[in-house]
Every structure is written in structure tokens, then in C-alpha cells.
Fold this sequence. Notes:
Blueprint: H1 6-15, E1 19-23, H2 27-40, E2 44-49, H3 50-56, H4 59-72, E3 79-86, H5 89-98, E4 102-105, H6 112-128, E5 132-137, E6 141-144, E7 147-149, H7 156-163, E8 169-172, E9 177-178, H8 189-198, E10 203-205, H9 213-221, E11 224-229, H10 231-247, H11 254-259, H12 262-277
Parallel strand pairs: 1-2, 1-11, 2-3, 3-4, 4-5, 5-8, 6-9, 10-11
Antiparallel strand pairs: 6-7
Helix pairs in contact: 2-4, 2-12, 5-6, 6-7, 10-12
Bound molecules: 1,3-dihydroxyacetonephosphate.
1,3-dihydroxyacetonephosphate is lined by residues 23, 47, 84-85, 144, 178-179, 206-209, 228-232.
Amino acid sequence: xxxxxxxxxxxxxxKKYAIPQFNINNLEWAKNILEKCQEMNLPVILGVSEGxxxxxxxxxxxxxxxxxxxxxxxxxxxVCLHLDHGQSFEMCKKxxxxxxxxxxxxxxxxxxxxxxxxxxxxxxYAHQFNVTVESEVGHIGGxxxxxxxxxxxxxxxxxxxISKSGIDSLAPAxxxxxxxxxxxxxxxxxxxxxxxxxxxxxxxxHGGTGIPEADIKRAISCGISKIxxxxxxxxxxxxxxVEFIKNSPEQYDPRKVIGGGKxxxxxxxxxxxxxxxxx
Length: 279
Ligand code: 13P
């Protein structure tokens, strides 16, 4: 069932666990994630970056693919199809019109007044179609979609300001980064807790790859209800494929080669689900 993220995130916030957002890159990613989450009977958010959207052909292709998989694989868990780091109102509108059930508008590169204005424009449009909206304040650093950014932590004031837009969830940059960490992650739990006390909406932790379990648990206790994972699945898949090619260099069937990373991916998805849901 394709749904927006409202109910699943509010339940996670209330009961103190986190819904994973696993980013997808292709058919195999979507299929593996859906199969594993169905097997575990857990809701899931499929994240699609602008780069992945372009790679897969565009929003109509992605919506058709995900809807098709839900039907063909008899997926009965709640599935949310979410745009990750939408850079403009136009991009958010495009995916909403195609059938995405949730969007992130990331106007965090602009001053807060402009971020608020763009975010509000997206919220006003999205809510007409029952599509949920996440936004970002401060700026999450690291590398995603081959773009590298410098971190800039969120302030409580900016979080209060952006909440005036009517957003459904908020990703405050508090020290996590996209991609691999250089050294240990250094999350600002104090500010996280203050934001949690000041705002009723679920908080989102980007850059979930490489954050140790103790920090994940603490973040959840400070109001984090959604955690994004991209790089970790990519690495798990890559390691499996490298091993497969080493062992079967003569194999040229793409289904077998790509499938060489499947077992590793399924294991990584299961591990993250257990950690985030506290199973
Ligand atoms: P990682 O690639 O670090 O897991 O981050 C994913 C993410 O935050 C997507 O928005």
C-alpha cells in the first residue's frame, strides 16, 4: 500500500522507534527492500534522490515501478515513496503530480527567510494532494549524488521559524553527514532534545550510514523518528558484486552479476530494521 509518511512517523515518534528511509537506485534496490521489509512486516520509506530519479528515467517511471512491485509481489506493508533532497518547488511539484506520496524540499542553502518561503510553497501544494513534506535547516554536509557539501548545524530558532510552513517532519543538521564519516560521528544531542521539546513534529536524521547503535538509540530518544540510509546499502551491494565477479569472472548475465550483491543488501536492510525498530 502506497501511503504518505504522516501516520508511520507519528506512530514512531509516539512509541520511540525510527522508520528507515532506504534510498533506491534501480529496480533491484526497490525489489530487495520491499521483499525484506514485507518479510519482516515493517513499514518502509523508499527515498529517491534527484540523481537517482534522473538515472531511473523520471518520476513516472519510478511511480509505475514501485506501484507495479507492490502489486506483483503482494506487498501489504505501508510503503511511502519519498523525494530525497528536492532542490526546488518545481521538482517537488513534478514528483507529486506523478504520484509520489511524500517529498523533501531542501532549501537549506538559502537564508532561513527564503527557506521558509520555498518550503511553505511546497507544503501548500503538497497538502492539497495529501502528500507529506520534510524540510531541512542548517546544512547537512558530506557527499551525496556526487555533490559534496560543508556542514552547518541547525539552531532552535531556525527550526521554530521553518515549522511555521506547516511541514510534517524536519531534518535539522546536527552533525551527521552523508556518506562515510571521517572519524566518529559527533551528533549534537542537546540541541536535538531542545528541538524535540519545542516542536510536535517528527525529526529526521540524515546520513545514517556509520552511526553507531548507541547514538542511534540516543537520537531516537531525542525525537528522531526517521533515519536515512543510502551509502551503507551501496557498500553492502558493491562488496557482494566484487566477490561474485572474482568467483565467477565468466558470468555475463546481468541478473546474476547485479544479484551478486543481493544477499549482502538483504542482510544490511535486516540489521538496520532491527536497530531502528528496536527488535
Ligand atoms: P548516507 O548515505 O550517509 O546513508 O545518508 C543517506 C541520506 O541521508 C539520504 O538523504
